[in-house]
Amino acid sequence: MKDPKTLVQAPPRGPVEPVQLGLDDRIQFRCHKGIDCFNQCCMDIDITLTPLDILRLARRLDIPTSECLALHAAAFEMDQHGMPGYKLRTREDSPACMFVTDEGCGVYEDRPAACRYYALGSMGLHREGSAGVDDIYFLVKEPHCLGHREPRTLTVGEYRREQGVEVYDDLNREWRDIILKKRSGGPAVGSPTERSFQLFHLASYDLDGFRRFVLSTNFRETFDLEAETYTQLEEDDEALLRFSARFLKQVLFGEQTIPLQEGVRERRMEQRMERRRRRLEAGKEETEQPFDPRYDAPQEED
């Protein structure tokens, strides 16, 4: 199954019906265990993972998000600047999904959003002159899929509810819109720094690592958040996901929605100057970049 849930702004070429669908449009489709093509869509996959996909798989497998990435995801670059992305890893000897079994999906309740959408595709479209991003849908008809012949019709909205994609879209939408803004902004946005790429990876994919990041002493000393907010970030994965999108907008686009502690710029500059002085005394080259309050916290002290 090639990923029908795409971040690009034009439907991919191939088995896509070039007809834009709305939530009230009807489709004919049903997938079930008794159908002759059962599991065929899982035998040749190209699934781009979203932050919630990775988090749900990690929780399902009871492993940290970093371990989930290492074991079950393959890194790729999403644009010419090297924006990091992940695809679901396939088997070593075939392009089949690691989680498919004779009985179907081995992680069905926590399967990625692209798998839930199939045989629909979804994308965000940034229309010229519009400040927002529109959600549009289209049908994917691969040659092997017999589900389109099944005698059942339902609306796109009904299918989305049936497959449980609404919560995925809700929690992934801001992240998707960040990717679209980065792409559509072009030279106006520019090429992110290495540090911002590192933080994009952390806040997008390694949510357990991001939780440690925002709960650290350095982060608390840099950003002015309520104690209740920190409690939510420590205990609530959904709150952490939403905060990660807010943080990324500050990192990539300078949207200052996370306030700094009073005097933090001056304190950080003093700390950097002291580290620089120690490096110079030790004969080491200067490696630090100028302080940037959008994302310059926390880093380990020397």
Account of the protein in words:
This protein is of the alpha+beta class and 302 residues long. The protein has helices at residues 51-61, 65-72, 113-117, 156-163, 166-185, 194-204, 207-215, 217-222, 227-235, 237-253, 264-281; strands at 16-21, 26-28, 73-77, 84-88, 100-101, 104-105, 120-125, 134-140, 153-155. The protein folds into 2 domains: 16-183, no CATH class; 192-302, no CATH class. Strand 7 and strand 8 form a beta hairpin.
Low-confidence stretches: 6-13, 293-302
Radius of gyration: 22 Å
- Which sequence of strands runs across the widest sheet? 1-8-7
Helices and strands, in order, run as EEHHEEEEHEEEHHHHHHHH
Notable traits:
elongated; 40% helix; 13% strand; disordered C terminus; three-stranded antiparallel sheet; two-stranded antiparallel ribbon; alpha+beta
In short:
The protein has helices spanning 51-61, 65-72, 113-117, 156-163, 166-185, 194-204, 207-215, 217-222, 227-235, 237-253, 264-281; strands at residues 16-21, 26-28, 73-77, 84-88, 100-101, 104-105, 120-125, 134-140, 153-155.
SSE layout and pairings?
Elements: E1 16-21, E2 26-28, H1 51-61, H2 65-72, E3 73-77, E4 84-88, E5 100-101, E6 104-105, H3 113-117, E7 120-125, E8 134-140, E9 153-155, H4 156-163, H5 166-185, H6 194-204, H7 207-215, H8 217-222, H9 227-235, H10 237-253, H11 264-281
Antiparallel strand pairs: 1-8, 2-9, 3-4, 5-6, 7-8
Helix pairs in contact: 1-2, 5-10, 6-10, 9-10
